[in-house]
Amino acid sequence: MFHKGWLVTEDQDTVKGDVKYDMETNAVQVVVENEKVKTFSSKKILYFEIYDNVLKTYRQFYSIPYQVESNYKIPIIFEVLYEGQTSLLVREKIVMTTDPYSQAYFNGPAGSSEKLSFTYYFVDTKGNMKMYKGKKNHLFEILDKNTDQVREYVKVNKLKTDEMRDIVRITAFYNSL
Which of 41, 82, 150, 165 is positioned for an S-S bond with 88, CB 3.0–4.6 A? Predict the structure, then answer.
């Protein structure tokens, strides 16, 4: 899906137009005014921003070097969900899910559908990045300062540590301490 937006290349050029991103291939396409499509790999991008018509909000993405092997980093695309002393980033991918309880399951092949899956990352001001495994205890290992206050905030507000909106709220609270 294309969205109105713009991107900044590693050469500091700004390209405006309809933007489409693909996190699986770490590529961004931009349709410029003359209907020409330009494709950029994450190696050639610093930043891009879109206005998502579905979510009715602006979304920001950065191409950030990420360690894929013990001694090898490559730039990949991350969306910024919260920016602060500890920032929250996310990567999305489309996964196929199967519903074993669908009517089709009992009469033939199970019903399957596509859905978005999210992987969250926390980054500190020094650039240290930690992938969040989605478990509450792991969240408190990452957000390791004022843990008792953060635990209480999660409990009192009945926040779920595996839902995007709640993880953003927890991160914002953590940064306010």
Answer: 82
Token pair recorded at residue 172: 């914002």
Between β-strands 37-41 and 45-52, what pairing exists: parallel, antiparallel or unpaired?
A: unpaired
Q: What is the pLDDT of residues 39-53, one digit of tens each?
A: 999 999 999 999 999
Residue 156 lies in a domain: no
Q: Residue 19: which of 9, 10, 8, 31 has the closest Cα?
A: 31
Which token pair is 50?
């879109």
Q: Is the pLDDT of residue 136 over 70?
A: yes
In order of 1, 96, 111, 112, 114, the CA distances from 107 in angstroms are: 34, 20, 10, 14, 21
Q: Which domain holds residue 45?
A: 1-82
Q: Is residue 175 part of a domain?
A: no
Nearest of 81, 83, 60 to residue 167 by alpha carbon = 81
Write the CATH number for 30: 2.30.30
